[in-house]
Amino acid sequence: MQIQYITKQEELDQCVQAIANEPSIAVDLEFDKNHYRYGFNLCLIQIYDHKTCYLIDPLAKEISLEGLFDVFRDPAVEKLVFAFGEDIRLLHHLGCKAQNILDLANVRSLLNYPPSSLSNMLAEVLGMETDKKLQKSNWFKRPLSEEQIKYAADDVLYLFPLKDALMQQAEALGRLDWIAQENAIFNTAEFIDNSEEINVKLKDKKMLNAFEWFIVEGLLIWREKLAKAVNKPSYQIMHKDLIWDLALGNKYVEDFMKFRGVYRKIQTPNCQRDLENRMEELYELAHKKQISKSKPAVAPLNPEEKAKNKELRAIVDEQKNNYFGPIKEAIAEKYGKEFSAFVLSNTLISQIALQKATDLLPYKKEIINQEAANLGLTIRL
């Protein structure tokens, strides 16, 4: 087995030609999500085809991934992966809707293994020890270190033997069709990139009145635009506490050059003026819109809404206590606790109880109905 590090289009084209007719390839991505740079960024692609481990550098100049993405889209080529949720979200963000994905993390759960990392699964199933130190590594770094290259390669090199071991167990238990149903979801699901959304904890927002929140939100949007412009994660541009202090009048823009918690390259007179202008605009707009200082930022539920929520909670509790709780326990007794949590999660129980469980997979429906019948329970799925 050789490791080939690809930085040129000609090398990538040869790689694509080599893997295009393979029945299965092992795939993994290394990415950065608002940690070292702004946004959701692809940093490295790892592919193994039983012969060569390709490490493809998407940051290399004048390299196009479209030919490789065509292989990812090809349903004739199985993409063998592990815990691919964020990876496929990134691929969708880049315009690549990969098909025929076999995620061994789903197989893990359907075989009643507890949630665990790839390295832990390799140790438990194959008795192999791999390096876990570089999970938070800076994958923008170039050149990659020897440690990074080994870590990246390890993420795909052992997926085939892990697949063989797990699928042998699954076949013996008659669960291959269940695995196929779970992984088929990747073919049609839509994965949205939310890396640029402004997220504020509800408990923090509840501490503000409507006027204060209007100013805070406006400053957060200003920070987000600035972060995008300088290609830094927004939390590194200006600390959230500073945003709050400015909005609440605990700190003043005049002292911007003295603030701690501001990215040094934007701590300039020009940026201070821009922030002053933004603050003035926000206050003017808040007064123009007559944003209230007496109303809370998060409106409390009215009596009807409270009553409705109470009614829905009662429905879920009744269904869980009398029907789906016992069914879940029966599934756990028959198939295992981890399997039960995967097939009939508390979230799914709530969705079923409120008749919001759309597209319930056939195998799940069959298992739930079977255990309900065994318990003498009548349910509607």
From TrEMBL:
GO terms for biological process: nucleobase-containing compound metabolic process. SMART domains: 35EXOc. Coiled coil: none annotated. CDD domains: RNaseD_exo. It comes from the Bacteria. Gene3D superfamilies: Ribonuclease H-like superfamily/Ribonuclease H (3.30.420.10). InterPro entries: 3'-5'_exonuclease_dom (IPR002562), HRDC-like_sf (IPR010997), RNase_D-like (IPR051086), RNaseH-like_sf (IPR012337), RNaseH_sf (IPR036397). Signal peptide: none annotated. One of its GO terms (molecular function) is nucleic acid binding. Residues 3-171 form the 3'-5' exonuclease domain. This is Ribonuclease D. It comes from Lishizhenia tianjinensis. The lineage of its organism: Bacteria, Pseudomonadati, Bacteroidota, Flavobacteriia, Flavobacteriales.
